């Protein structure tokens, strides 16, 4: 499916919930856009043994991920490896924003997992005023300026190198332990980030050792918190508020898996993905 085609269901996340939702949607002959990593989820692939997935006793996380990927292949579901930076309810459809393309879908299933950790002090208040979650989207605002990247993974490093192509200076702060591989245009600062100070706009990054003045801060976590990803979405702490049919407060938007609350179990996530897809199919039928 190309980006100009409106999908029936866009699914964000390639863990067990997202994969299950995609499989069920395809069984019901729906056009599916599945966003996520082709490696599925590192949380699963790093699991040594999974003992409670029915029919697959003592399977490793890597083997379960391989079986899920094979199932997607059999169903003809392709994975779109683009970071989803925002989802907009547009009335009769949803706009799915990625760094370079805006996709459209008649319904959306959120299955991206729970975002661990609290926002930095100042992050919420300065979102859109110097704080960004997408370097590719907002790099043009900072040409010739100084920016900071609060990095969480290898993708953060690539985004920092991209920023260095146009910014005067790029500071990279590894927020969690990961291999940092950046080019000569990026300065790595191994200090603990404490806050993002500023009043009307970002003024810098405060660490446990110093205040680093910058014009913009890119917080590049593995996933965007759901209430920031989808404007108007009702949440319950770090989770999306859903009913038993995985419906959110936004018509046509559903959520499942870890994102929908505890317990954080693969079998529970897969079951909720199935429910979310069936609910989306029912909702689409009602719209016709």
Overall description:
This protein is α/β, with parallel strands linked by helices and 288 residues long. It has seven helices and 17 strands. The protein folds into two domains: 174 residues, FAD/NAD(P)-binding domain (3-Layer(bba) Sandwich); 90 residues, 3-Layer(bba) Sandwich (FAD/NAD(P)-binding domain). Strands 1, 2, 3, 4, 5, 6 and 17 form a seven-stranded mixed sheet that branches. Strands 7-14-8-9-10 form a five-stranded parallel sheet, with helices on one face. The longest helix has 22 residues.
Features:
7 helices, FAD/NAD(P)-binding domain, 25% helix, 2 domains, 24% strand, five-stranded parallel β-sheet, alpha/beta, 288 residues, 17 strands
Largest sheet: 7 strands, mixed
CATH topology of the largest domain: FAD/NAD(P)-binding domain
- Low-pLDDT stretches: none
Whole-Å distance between the termini?
Answer: 22 Å
CATH class of the largest domain: Alpha Beta
Beta-strand content bin: 15-25%
Q: What is the count of structural domains?
A: 2
In the CATH hierarchy, what is the architecture of the largest domain at level 2? 3-Layer(bba) Sandwich
Structural class per helix/strand content?
Answer: alpha/beta
Strand tally, please?
A: 17
What gyration radius follows from the Cα positions, in whole Å?
A: 19 Å
Query: Order of SSEs, N→C?
Result: EHEHHEEEEEHEHEEEEEEHEEEH
Summed over residues and divided by their number, the pLDDT gives a mean of: 91
Name the helicity range.
25-40%
What coarse outline follows from CA principal-axis ratios?
A: globular
CATH homologous superfamily assignment of the largest domain: FAD/NAD(P)-binding domain
């Amino acid at each position: 499916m190309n980006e100009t085609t409106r999908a029936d269901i866009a699914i964000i996340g390639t863990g067990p919930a997202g994969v299950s939702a995609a499989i069920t949607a395809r069984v019901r002959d729906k056009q599916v856009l599945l966003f996520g990593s082709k490696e599925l989820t590192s949380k699963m692939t790093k699991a040594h043994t999974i003992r409670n997935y029915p029919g697959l006793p003592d399977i490793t996380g890597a083997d379960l991920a391989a079986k899920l990927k094979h199932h997607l292949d059999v169903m003809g579901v392709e994975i779109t490896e683009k970071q989803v930076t925002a989802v907009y309810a547009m009335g009769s459809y949803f706009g799915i924003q990625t760094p370079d393309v805006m996709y459209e879908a008649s319904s959306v299933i959120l299955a991206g997992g729970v975002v661990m950790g609290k926002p930095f002090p100042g992050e919420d208040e300065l979102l859109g005023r110097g704080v960004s979650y997408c370097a590719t989207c907002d790099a043009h605002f900072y040409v010739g300026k100084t920016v900071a990247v609060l990095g969480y993974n290898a993708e953060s490093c690539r985004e920092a190198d991209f920023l260095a192509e146009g910014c005067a200076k790029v500071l990279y702060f590894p927020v969690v332990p990961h291999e940092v591989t950046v080019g000569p245009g990026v300065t790595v600062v191994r200090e603990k980030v404490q806050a993002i100070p500023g009043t009307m706009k970002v003024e810098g990054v405060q660490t446990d050792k110093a205040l680093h003045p910058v014009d913009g801060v890119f917080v590049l976590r593995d996933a965007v918190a759901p209430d920031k990803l989808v404007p108007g979405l009702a949440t319950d702490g770090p989770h999306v508020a859903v009913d038993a049919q995985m419906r959110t407060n936004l018509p046509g938007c559903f959520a499942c898996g870890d994102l929908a609350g505890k317990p954080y179990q693969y079998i529970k996530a897969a079951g909720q993905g199935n429910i979310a897809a069936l609910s989306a199919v029912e909702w689409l039928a009602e719209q016709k």
